[in-house]
Design a protein that fits this description.
This protein is of the alpha/beta class. It has helices spanning 11-25, 37-47, 63-73, 90-99, 111-122, and strands at 3-7, 30-34, 51-55, 80-85, 103-106.
Length: 125
């Protein structure tokens, strides 16, 4: 059963993403939530989600650090990470790539594009 972890310190963004991906729950996807980088790492270690939607600017550990920890320290290369951020500069994108992010998307995002991307990554029709 595929698992998706939504990580954002803004409650309304978490809710928006949860509502956006709700239709995938009917197809067997489990949605997990975290509101800071530290708890995200703990959930990733314990639950091993297939995909993580990761904000960058968060308390305790930022998204770059979470991504780096998951991909490089924990060597969990099979966890697909989509960084969602208001930071759209080339410098930030490069930093996301170096941390190991699979995709870097800027906010505001198109909910349909998120569903499509997540469905493609997880192989859901």
């Amino acid at each position: 059963m595929p698992k998706i972890l939504i990580v954002d310190d803004e409650p309304h963004i978490r809710l928006l993403l949860e509502q956006t991906l709700e239709e995938l729950e009917e197809k067997g996807v489990t949605l997990l939530l975290a509101d800071n980088g530290e708890s995200a790492v703990e959930i990733i270690k314990k639950e091993r989600p297939n995909l993580v939607l990761l904000d960058i600017m968060m308390p305790k550990l930022n998204g770059f650090d979470v991504c780096n920890k998951v991909k490089h320290e924990l060597n969990m290369k099979d966890v697909y990470i989509i960084m969602l951020t208001a930071k759209g500069q080339e410098f930030d994108k490069k930093r996301g790539e170096q941390a190991g992010a699979d995709v870097y998307m800027t906010k505001p995002f198109n909910p349909d594009a998120i569903v499509e991307m997540v469905s493609n990554v997880l192989g859901i029709k």
